[in-house]
Structures are given as C-alpha cells and as structure tokens.
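Cross-posting from the chemistry board since nobody answered there.

I work mostly on the small-molecule side, so proteins are not my area. We synthesized 2-acetamido-2-deoxy-beta-D-glucopyranose and want a rough idea of how it might sit in this target. Sequence and SMILES are below. Is it possible to get a predicted 3D structure of the two together?
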Amino acid sequence: MRNTRNREDLHLISFLLFFLLSYSAALFSPPDNHLVDCGSSSATTLDDHRVFLPDSNCRSARLVSGGPKISVSADGESSLDREDLLYAPVYRTARVFTALSSYEFHISSKGTYIIRLHFYPFSTRRHNLSSAEFHVFSSVFVLLSNFTASPDTSSLKEFILAVNEEKLVISFVPASSNSFAFVNAIEVISAPVDLIGDTARYVQPDQIVRFDGLLKQAMETLYRINIGGPKVTPFNDTLWRTWVPDSSFLDSNSATKTMYFSGRIMYQKYGASREVAPDSVYNTARIMDVSNSSDSSSRMTWIFSVDHDRRFLIRMHFCDIASLALNELFFNVYINGYLAYEDFDISAATGRVLASPYYVDFVTDVGSSGLLHLSISPSRIGAASRVDGLLNGLEILKINNTAGSLNGELPVALILQSSRRGTFGSTLRSLICGLGFMILSVIGFMLMLRWRAESKNRVSWSPLPMDASGGKNAKWSQTV
Ligand SMILES: *[C@@H]1O[C@H](CO)[C@@H](O)[C@H](O)[C@H]1NC(C)=O
Ligand SMILES: *[C@@H]1O[C@H](CO)[C@@H](O)[C@H](O)[C@H]1NC(C)=O
Ligand SMILES: *[C@@H]1O[C@H](CO)[C@@H](O)[C@H](O)[C@H]1NC(C)=O
Ligand SMILES: *[C@@H]1O[C@H](CO)[C@@H](O)[C@H](O)[C@H]1NC(C)=O
Ligand SMILES: *[C@@H]1O[C@H](CO)[C@@H](O)[C@H](O)[C@H]1NC(C)=O
C-alpha cells in the first residue's frame, strides 16, 4: 500500500519535472540578455516585446569614454525599408565617440555569447554618421576594423565568442584622429550551451580531419539561410535571429523543389534543439529528386561570396521532412568541390526518427577566390528513393585569423597602441597649442602693461618738454 502510494507520488513528481523541463526548454531565457539603445535617454520597446535600455543610465552596461559622451538623434523621417522596421525604434539615436570608448557588460554566466551591433548611419547637422570610420574590438578579438557603415541602410553585425571573464568589454575607436565612431544599439546575449560545439569536420583538399577548439574561436555570422523557405524574423526565432531565403544563392543549374512540412518537428535529446534553429527553419527544405532524370551526377549547389584567405564554419541543418520511411535518404555533401561527407545517413544520425532535426558543422579554408560552393548530390546508396538530397538550413560564419581578428590583419594590441599614439599625438598637439596660447597671452599681457604704463606716463610726463627718443627712454626707466 505504502509502496504504491510512493510510486504514485514519484509518478506525479516525474510528470511535473517533465512538464517543467519541457516548458523551460520551450522558453529559453538567457542568463544575460543586455539590450542597449545607445544615445537614447529612455527605454525603447520593439514590436517583438524586447526592451532596450538607454546607455546613459543602464545597470547592465557601463559606458567608459575617453572623450565627450555625444548622443545624436535622427532629425527627420528615416528611409528604412521594410526589413529594418523591427529595429527602427533603436535606429533613431546613436552614440558618437571621438576617442577610445568602451561599454562594459556584466557577465553572470561565462560561456558563449552572441553579440549584435547595430549601425544605421543617419545624418544630422553636425554629424554625418556615414563618414565615420572606426574599429571595434573586445579585450581579445578585433570585431571590425576600418569600418564604415554603408549609407541609407542598416547594418547588423553578429559575432559569437566565448567570454571567460566577469565582464565583457566592447571598445570603439576612431580609425584616425579626424574621424569618429558610432553605434545605435548593442545586444549581448548568453547563448544556450548547445549552440556551439567544440568539434567540427575539417574539410581539407585531400582529407577530412577532426577540428578541435571551435569554442576558442571568435566568429562572425555572414549568412543565415532558411533553405527552401520564407524569411524568418526575430519574431519566430528562439534567439532573435533572422534567416533569409536561399533562392538568390542557388545555382540555376540545380534541379530542385521546395518542401513544406506541417507536422510536428521531433526535437531529440542528442540532435539539434529548438535554440539551434527554430521550427520555421526545419519545416521547410529544398530537395532534389533525380529519379526521373538519367543524369545521376546532378547536384544542388549554392554559391556564396566570402572573404578570401580565411577560415569558415559552415553549419548545415537537416531534417528529413520528405521521406515516407526511414533509411531511404542518403546523400553526399561537397564543399568547394571536396567531398565533405560521403553517404550521409540522416536516419542513423537522428536515431531513426523522421522529421527530427540534426546539424553538421564543417570547417574549411577559402583561398584567394573568396567563393564558397556548397553542394548536395545523390549517394550511390538508396538510389531508388523518393528524395535524393535535402537541406533545410545553412549558416556560414567567419573564424578569426591568427592575429585574433575577424576583419583586418591587426591584433587588438596594435590597434590600442596606435590609438594611444593617436591620443598621445593629440595630447602633444593640444599641449603645444596650449603653450603657444600661454606665450601669446604673456606677451599680450606684457604689451598691455607697457601700454598702460605708457599711457599713464604719457599723462604725467607729457607736459615736460623733451625730445622723442630721450623721453621714451626716460619713461621706460621710470616705469621699471
Ligand atoms: C554623408 O557622407 C557620405 C559619405 O561620406 C556621403 O555620401 C553623403 O552624401 C553625406 N550625407 C550628407 C547629408 O552630407
Ligand atoms: C511567425 O510567427 C507568426 C505568428 O507568431 C506566424 O503567423 C508566421 O507564419 C510565422 N512565420 C514563419 C516563417 O514561421
Ligand atoms: C519526377 O516524376 C514525378 C512523377 O512523374 C513528378 O511528380 C516529379 O515532380 C518529378 N521530379 C522532377 C524533379 O522532375
Ligand atoms: C583565433 O583566436 C584564438 C584565440 O586567440 C586562437 O587560439 C586561434 O588559433 C585563432 N584562430 C585561427 C584560425 O587562427
Ligand atoms: C586601416 O586601413 C589602413 C589603410 O588601408 C591600414 O594601414 C590599417 O592597417 C587598417 N587598420 C586596421 C586596424 O586594420
């Protein structure tokens, strides 16, 4: 009797626990979620209910500026297109820096962070933000160098990096002494632990090896694509990301069709979670079906222009929403012509569950071409299947170089050094100016004294008859 009772309790508890766990999994709430509306004097709420706090009075972000704290506001109507409307409220103001300045964010849980910097270069009577040229860096990594925001459009720069200190410092410094830096808004969000793993498949010309240490790299998101589906906005994404459609990157020779799945996406414990990519990414795909055509060498290919001579992380998201049964879909993945994954077996990868999300991370080096060709092609296995290849989502991230920089070749230390030299130069200049002014003032003061003395003497001495030169000498000796 007692035993059954206990068992019932246990059931109830495990049910509650399960409920709580699945509930908390559905609503990921990051330990740190610093949203800052730079240059603003009051909090700003976006349509997706996120609240950006003003940087002038914000407990989570401290602004340390080496110069005056200048905030600017857009005068008239902005020419934002529809894409930018979500963030439009935080594009109305910006913070302008004329010297090295930093935001310090309190970090409550060390680990991987997502950092988003928003730039919308409006123009006021005193500041044309399109003409700003500057560098942005953390204490370890250079995020942007010699950066100029393209006019009449907004730029969102997203970085993913590990923070192992109690605070994250993001610094801005003008690229030259007559330039300035600016930023409209900053997001610093703790990433879920499973967002970035430490290993990947390193695709090299002649082999695939294991890449370790992904968590030590800083990355910049270049492309985030919802393959075969519509644009996904921060409204529908678990981490407020934007995923764009793939059609403009698809090689026109690819014989493909898009697919939409209205069933339930089966997230598995060891597969991709809803934070890795949302339902809206996994429930659409582009598939290839070559069973009608005799050409089995066909591929579906996407082409991306990226920086040359850099290393990239390529994340491919798969969710078999097309097959009617398990163990039918097998395909090959090619990266810049190299076989990156042969006979990928999505059923085995997902633990034999259909419509279950899974992703594969590839690391590859791009040479002087600056192009990434990504292809899916049918495998020799499963040749008679309904579907011969599938892709649901794609992310391309740039990895820092050996100097710890994501843009440019200089490390943080050299940028700091040259900015100090810049400040030193300007200090020297102002010192010289100040000295010059002092000397001029002293001379002016002495001249005035002399003039006063002269005029006084002129009054008292002028009645005396005297020749000009003698009088002058006499007056001088009198005053002194
Ligand atoms: C601001 O600067 C950019 C680039 O220097 C220039 O193209 C633009 O015309 C300027 N805008 C205004 C309003 O002066
Ligand atoms: C995004 O969410 C809205 C409502 O929450 C829904 O109407 C819309 O279809 C979703 N878009 C996508 C691409 O899933
Ligand atoms: C192959 O043929 C089937 C039926 O004949 C058709 O539904 C399908 O769209 C065709 N696939 C392609 C890629 O043409
Ligand atoms: C990126 O920076 C980290 C930390 O400084 C370094 O360990 C790593 O080797 C760099 N990555 C590359 C590809 O050089
Ligand atoms: C900025 O550009 C100048 C001129 O091209 C270059 O000399 C300098 O190294 C660049 N600075 C950084 C931080 O990349």
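Reply from a structural biologist on the board:
Welcome over. Reading the output above for you: The longest strand covers residues 310-319. The radius of gyration is 32 Å. Happy to explain the token format if needed.
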